Amino acid sequence: LVQASMAEKNRLAQAAKNVAAASAMMGGGEPAAPEEPRKLMVSDLHPHIAADDLKEVFSPFGELTSVEMQPNAGGAEGALGTAYITFQRPSDARDAQAAIHGLELAGRNITVSFMAELPAALSAIAAGGMGSALSGVLGGVPGLGLGAHLMMGGGGAGVEDNIGAERAALLARIGSAAPSPYVLLKNMFDPAGKDETSDPDFFGDLREDIMEECGKFGKVEAAKVDRASQGHVLLQFDSTGSATKAASSMHSRWFAGKQITAEFTDEAAFASAPSA
């Protein structure tokens, strides 16, 4: 997977220091080392996206402990287009943020940001309605705001800074079509190559190898190798989440001296594609 940019790592480190500083200022004594964030804020969601939809997209990256939809004033889930996803492991949260941030979901490019919970002492004070008292203390600590949670890296102005060149290229590719259970891998073989034209088992073996490798990201329901194309292999996964993880992991990898590109496709394209 594409790694977090240096700017993003710096923001995470600074925000962790801010949390520790605030804890010390509130009389917590020597603060414990802050944990890496396990929680993500997902914003710009379509109003019809539900918690189950998000579970399908995010669960392939690791075990989820909670999926919370932000209700509107009337109590309808999803109306504000914001949700909170918490993973069991910080590393899974990092992988999910890197792969899904900026992808198009139901016609909207979603934003996925890291979040960290405030220390217990600060959360208890905030829950007790002492936000006004906290404002004077936290106002002097850069990056900290009121409420029970802290968004890593500040507000929307930092979004572009958090997207490295490699991840931006990946998102531009796999985000060119709406996420779906169907993935198109390009440049997987040379249709005029020696093995491709002389080995009768080449395409069958290639199909099996790809299904085995991509099966690490979720169940592969079917795979098609288009012999007449420029190395196209189409995959059908059991869910959009599995396909998302596979596309983000396979994109830009090298195979047999060729660099793979991965992008989403749709059911119609998969059904119409010839198969080896």
The total beta strand count reads 13
* Lateral strand order in the biggest sheet: 2-3-1-6-7
Q: What kind of sheet is the major sheet?
A: 5 strands, antiparallel
Arithmetic mean of pLDDT: 72
Shape assignment: elongated
- State the helicity in percent bands: 25-40%
Rounded to the nearest angstrom, the radius of gyration is: 22 Å
- What proportion strand? 15-25%
This entry's quaternary arrangement is: single chain
Question: How widely separated are the two ends?
Answer: 29 Å
Give the helices and strands as they follow along the chain: HEHEEHEEEHHEHEHHEEHEEEH
Continuous helix count: 10
**Low-pLDDT segments:** 120-173
List keywords for this structure.
five-stranded antiparallel β-sheet; 276 residues; single chain; 13 strands
